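Quick note —
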Amino acid sequence: MSMNRRDLLQRLGGIGAAGTAALLATPARSATAGAGNSAALKGPYLDLTTGVGNKTAMARMSGDLDTAKQKQSWFSGVVMAVRLDADIEDLFGFEGLSSSRIQVQTTAPI
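Predicted structure written out below.
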């Protein structure tokens, strides 16, 4: 089956219209969620409205909570230049490895 450009654009337009209709049919987010004072910031384990809760959340995302274990990760990306009246340019790529281990500190409160 061959498809010409007109058929392709019509089908893509139909998909876009269906996606827009689905997006408009979803209920809007409440203003409290956007303001950052939602009840979702407080849970049974973490309270993200406090410094201690944020510290625990960051530790859980960046390391293993078992202090005897290390977590290794790999990352890569591209640094780009954005200037007025010019195309976006790739400057250079980078790759790296990281290793982290959590240590319990009892003398440094937040």
